Amino acid sequence: MHADGVIRTPYVEMARYLDATGQAALEQKRREAEVLFRRIGVTFAVYTEGGDPERLIPFDVIPRILSHEEWMHLCRGLEQRVRALNAFLTDVYGPQEIIKANRIPRELVLENEGYLPQMQGFTPPGGVWTVISGIDLVRTGPDAFYVLEDNCRTPSGVSYMLENREAMFRLFPEICARHRIAPVSHYPEELLETLKSLAPASCAGEPCVVVLTPGPYNSAYYEHSFLADEMGVELVEGADLFVKDLVVYMRTTAGPKRVDVIYRRIDDDFIDPEAFRPDSVVGVPGLMAAYRAGNVALANAPGTGIADDKAVYPYVPEMIRFYLKEEPILSNVPTFMCERPADQDYVLANLDKLVVKLARGSGGYGMLVGPHATEEQRADFAARIKARPGDYIAQPTLALSTVPTLGEDGIGPRHVDLRPFILFGKTVRMVPGGLTRVALRPGSLVVNSSQGGGTKDTWVLLEDPPEAPPLALPPPEEPAAPQSQDGQSQTPGGMTQSQNGQSQSQGNN
Fold it and tell me: What is each CA distance from 365 to 303, 466, 502, 503, 505, in whole angstroms?
């Protein structure tokens, strides 16, 4: 809702529906969603807490809704950002013009663990490094979207986006029919076409595409198998592939079959024991040699991790200006680099107001939410920053937007972020929406599923509905009445933004 209590236009129909639907009916739908997800097997894995690592992904039955105009604005900003990141990767593994122009510190790039010297001087098929990107966004007001972080290596979560939409159509056909919702079900076809467009020139006929997974014990294995199945391609492990004469082959019952494009969901260090870690048992020996020979395409290209490093993140607006000669459409969250003496002094003096994160951390681990931390926790982080300042960044707290979410006490506001997925091949493609991650606990800023967060379906309306008469909800008579919309949080004192923790992406994933 707007600040004056009037429901925002995209939510008018949903507000009416929620106002007319009792808590018991919504709870029943939530239980049905849980049964559905359990039957399908929509899970993720957490390995740090002991016991069974497989968890059911939490799903909230109230969708997040974006207007057509809002989405088009995001599309323009996302495409601009991905093109700039790709240009940055091409440059730093090539002539390094941005470093020579002193627009980004040389040591920050070339001494970064995400930078792979093995990729120096190499151009990926089609000149595309970031084939699949997930850009995390947060909102602080009706027209204020910020980029929280860039995920350029192996962004995950798209399977939850697709399964969430399927669940909503099954559980709420009547309310779905009352909205003109842009579809997302064509994402696997878009992904497959993008991957095929990268096939090397030596490919004869229809490109053979595979999904390379580290195996069923990986936290995102469900997504690996889901996408392979939806694209109609083989899901393979390292042992299923071999390299001969600089060509990659897949073992099949009919004999070896040449592979042209690999959508790899294995970290750089493990994809080829001959090029990186010799102890890797999930990679393919000789894969990098075949890749450098131009006989196979990898998505995403090895070495893209330098583009989503949190210490590099503050320089993305400058990349846009340097490579595209444009002003950024989407803003960054202001970021303090603890390796800079002045920034470190400010961070240490204001730990109670800031969010501190590991520059290369993920999944919500290794971070401090200052306003919610104890004195002992802040002291611990102060010691860590002093010992290894280059490992940490800090960001101010923001008043994050909230959306209506079904909790134990009825419908209430919960903080969210948004991860749209951008495909970059011969063209840039995006399905409308993305994965909305939601902090399920009241007041929490942590949206990661590994940290107790959940997901929502994200609706992008095909066109803005005609201006409806102002609708204000009556005073709630029971806890189930709507309390908040995708506007500014009304939590006293403001809320901290989120990134790898607050609004944290699942890591590389």
Answer: 23, 45, 10, 12, 11
CA 116, CA 280: separation in Å to the nearest integer? Answer: 17
Name which of 276, 355, 331 is nearest 113 in CA terms. Answer: 276
User: Is residue 26 exposed (0-12), middle (13-18) or buried (19+ Cβ within 10 Å)?
Assistant: middle
Helices (H), 93-135: 97-100, 106-110
- Joined tokens for residue 235: 């899901």
Three-class DSSP category at 169: helix
Distance of alpha carbon 62 from the chain centroid:
20
CA–CA gap between residue 374 and residue 380 (Å, rounded)? 10
Burial of 377 (0-12, 13-18, 19+ CB in 10 A): middle
Please tell me the distance from the alpha carbon of residue 297 to that of residue 271, in angstroms, as a whole number: 13
What 3-state class would DSSP assign to 487?
strand
* Residue 482 CB coordination number (10 Å): 21
Amino acid at 175: I
HSE-CB of 277 using CA atoms within 13 angstroms? 11
Q: What is the per-residue DSSP string for 327-392?
A: --SSEEPP-EETTSHHHHHHHHHTTTTEEEEETT--TT-SEEEGGGS-HHHHHHHHHHHHH-GGGE
Specify the DSSP element, H or E, that contains 167.
helix 158-171
* Domain residue limits, the chain: 201-295, 334-396
Q: Which of 230, 137, 156 is nearest to 419 (CA)?
A: 137
CA-to-CA separations, 368 to 68, 314, 441, in angstroms, rounded: 36, 19, 18
334-396 placed in CATH 3.30.565.10: no
Could you list the pLDDT tens digit for every one of the 509 residues in the chain?
888 889 999 999 999 999 999 889 999 999 999 999 888 877 665 545 444 456 678 899 999 999 999 999 999 999 999 999 999 999 999 999 999 999 999 999 999 989 999 999 999 999 999 999 999 999 987 778 999 999 999 999 999 999 999 999 999 999 999 999 999 999 999 999 999 999 998 888 999 999 999 999 888 899 999 999 999 999 999 999 999 999 999 999 999 999 999 999 999 999 999 999 999 999 999 999 999 999 999 999 999 999 999 899 999 999 999 999 999 999 999 999 999 999 999 999 999 999 898 887 655 556 888 888 899 999 999 999 999 998 899 998 877 889 999 988 889 999 999 999 999 999 999 999 999 999 988 887 778 766 678 999 999 999 755 555 555 544 444 433 334 445 444 333 333 333 333 333 333 34
For 56-67, give the secondary structure using H, E and C: ECCEEEEEEEEC
Same fold? 201-295, 334-396: no
Domain 201-295, what fold?
Answer: Rossmann fold (3.40.50)
Q: Are 271 and 99 in contact (CB under 8 A)?
A: no
